[in-house]
What we know:
elongated; about 90 residues; 2 domains; 4 helices; mainly alpha; single chain
Amino acid sequence: xxxxxxxxxxxELKLLGNxxxxxxxxxxxxxxxxxxxxxxxxxxxxVFVKLTKENAEAALAALDASATPSAPALAHLSDAIRASLAx
Length: 87
């Protein structure tokens, strides 16, 4: 989904670049370029997994049932899923 959004931004940037003689297009192209840069910064170093809400809730329940204090990575994953579901 995020990669699709990035591709769309790049296509908009190319489209607006072809009409750069209009002041409005120039401003829109600059906004698209900044959006691509911000998206790349936000995605750098992260791993994103697309889950349905139902699958995320099921995974959270399974993690909560199996996570122990000796498994901090699973606890962190559980916290990340919980935070995503809260938004």
